[in-house]
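Take a look at the protein record below and flag anything odd:
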Amino acid sequence: MSRPVSRRTVLGLAGGVAGAAVLAPALATPATADAGSDVTLTDNGTTVTLANGIIEFTVVKATAELVKLRLIGSTQGNENIDLLPGGRSHGYTTFNIGTAPASGMKGATFSVTARTTDRIEISLLSDDATLLPFRLDIRFALERGASGLYSYWLAGYPDGMPDGLALGQLRYAFSTGADPSFRWFVVDDARGVQQRPSIADLQNAVTLQDSTVVLPDGRIWSKYQNSSDLEGDNNVFLMSNGTIGLSLVQASKESFGGPTRQELTVHDYYDGMILLWHPLTGHYGMPDVRPEKGWSKVYGPFYLHVGEAAVGDEAGNVAALWQDAKQVAAREVARWPYQWVTDPGYAATQRSAVSGRLAITGHPVVRDGWAVLYRPGPDRDWRGTVLDGTDWQYLGLDYHYFARIDPAGTFTIPAVRPGTYTLAAFAGGALGEYRRTGITVPAGTRVDAGRHSWKPVSHGTTLWQIGTPDRTAKEFHIPGGADGYRSTLAWLEYPYDFPDGVDFTVGVDDPAEKWNYFHPVLATPGTAAQLQWRGTTPDDTLTEWTIRFAARRYRAGTGHVDIAVAGAVFATLAVTLNGTRIANLDPLPGVPGDNSSYRQVARSMYRLLPTIAFPATLLRAGDNVLTLAPLRPGEITDGLDDWMEPMSGIMYDTIRLQVDPR
């Protein structure tokens, strides 16, 4: 167990114990067992074992728990190493349902759903309402010649199940928690090869919040540092003992919530590591999924790849395993949708590709653009309130299909199920989001969705703008450097970097230096334990940020303030211009708490606030002052958890002032 707070330590940069670069990686060496070996199944009574001459794994029938995983085709002498022998080293389910304690699969019924010498698939089905309040069929599959296993989930909510289902988290975890040799991991190329702290360092660390400690050398260590934003090519992450790598490959993320969804990936766990597959969580602001009777959804499949590297330097081996895992991920992406998934809900043979072109007024080149197809609502939030159903970020009942938009504005979204969808699109530099309803997708064809013209939100002449519309706060001041929101508890530095609050002069100050990435509610954000560790005297004064700018006098017309928010935690906002209050937002529209600060990211649930209109006559000739301030402390009044309250505040994406003089 980590020690309680007992001393002040200078805030150090956090991050992986090992650096990211490996100059001369070893070569990954796939197992060379006969790729023609048949796939076999052995029924052991309470467990079942699948093997193909390369890997062998054993599943507990009643719980879907993996209690054995071996690379039996190893060429490096690893064939007898059991990677998941049971206990804390196993594969297992976790469900968070409503307000009930976390649970897992139990009492499942085992069956074989496909069996040939080339491929075997097994089913572990729970449809007993006394054990689980929804229907869940967990599938595992093994193919000839594969150095890994597939798994997917068929979830449903049929009649006969208890009313009021609220799914908060569904996950499958692969834990090597009893094996201290698993200390290496990779989340993405940007962070590179990392090594967890030593067990001794973690045992002697100071706890600052859940799964977040300060190590004896002063560095911050947290599982939240290893979150992934799930965008682009980030389809895989890995953990390793320096010779063998376990890589979780997600060929498609259609069931996870869209291109900006974030999630935890891989981190230290007891004495080893853990890989996480999260079909559904609320970690970054996603509401509970509250389906009506008759709902069903297919989550996955994912692929767990087992690789090994030639004996050599461990860091070099891990770099080689990572390159191998990325190649495997590219192969799996190319195979999507998997034709062997026969469930009608997966619709493997009915998928279509949807292409189109987006033209953005004032943006001849589309930067960092995404196109999203989704079916609106009717989802509900954690209070049971029906959402308007038009914002794809909050929808978890159905699927999201998405693809990047190239600089010319063209896009192709692959593998879309038949149906009628809304098309959403957004891009760097363009405020807001484009939407077009009624995109019909027939089965098994290529669909030309046509040309779409988008005129982003605009209300006249721009006097000034702080921030670039990109749905993040990354371009602003971040303590600890560009990645400091991950590697430090950055909110603790606010009173030191901005002892008098943010006072920003347009046209003079650099937002990267003078505009903090996070506008806290309180002058000293953080828990009592965190402030004590940092040596900060608590100050519950509400913060006020000041924007100074020059303008001319207007005898008529309307001014408009647009504020795009990249993340918010129990925030309210008062906007005042030259002493006149022009907006009170209490609460801030959107999800109340999206975990953005607490879980160490620079964005979470994006929202463009309602435009604030005011008489342009409020502007003065010469100096003007706009202030942004919370209306009250970040208090929770509806029974939600309060663990985010000390980090309450707003991450701004963009703030813009325009005037229409008419």
